[in-house]
Amino acid sequence: MSALYPFLAPDGDAGTDLVRSTEAKAAESLELRLRVLAGLGPALAACAAAMAAAFRAGGTLFAFGNGGSSTDAQAVAQVFRTPHGTSPGVPAICLTGDAALLTALANDVAFDVVFARQLAALGRPGDVAMALSTSGGSVNVLRGLEQARRIGMVTVGLAGAGGGRMAEEGLADHLFVVPSSSVHRVQEAQTTLCHVLRELAGRERAGT
Ligand SMILES: O=C(CO)[C@@H](O)[C@H](O)[C@H](O)[C@H](O)COP(=O)(O)O
């Protein structure tokens, strides 16, 4: 019987295997998150301070990514916009929420520019671009970061798998690499990093 997931323990070997593999994944996920957070403390604090300064000056956060990272970018925009205790919400927009716009840009221009073109239209110097990618190599994400830098935005990159081109090309002022080649483990750890950044930036902004 699993302590973590008793509902996953039907009779028989298949059920036992499922429980074991689920528990192994949960343990791997927890260990990775703890390791990442332990190694990135000062970098997270520096990034949160830069984000808080941007928000104090009226800046907006733009989050973007593909697939599961698109879902995570939507969660980022929601969690930064929502007030938490004494910390007010900040302007935050996810660049994958508008299907009409995304499909028009992809169909009429190119999929590689779906984030860059939106940032060209909406971004201002001092805004914050947060790019999420598990490979660090999605071209539309890299083009988005390039555009954000051209505008003079603060660029934040979350990548896995060694950081990929996002790391090689130095496209993020604040880069957080999750050392795993598992897309799912990377996404789980990135979600945690985003929540920590929101909390630290909120505290920094509130001066607590
Ligand atoms: O999330 C999953 C699988 O869980 C996929 O949808 C995954 O996000 C997609 O393959 C993305 O296109 C991968 O892009 P990236 O993370 O390498 O930038």
TrEMBL record:
GO terms for molecular function: isomerase activity. SUPFAM superfamilies: SIS domain (SSF53697). The keyword Isomerase applies. InterPro entries: GmhA/DiaA, SIS_dom, SIS_dom_sf, SIS_GmhA/DiaA_subfam. Its EC number is 5.3.1.28. It comes from the Bacteria. It is an enzyme of class 5 (isomerase). The keyword Hydrolase does not apply. Residues 51-207 form the SIS domain. Keywords: Isomerase. Gene3D superfamilies: Glucose-6-phosphate isomerase like protein, domain 1 (3.40.50.10490). This is D-sedoheptulose 7-phosphate isomerase. The lineage of its organism: Bacteria, Bacillati, Actinomycetota, Actinomycetes, Streptosporangiales.
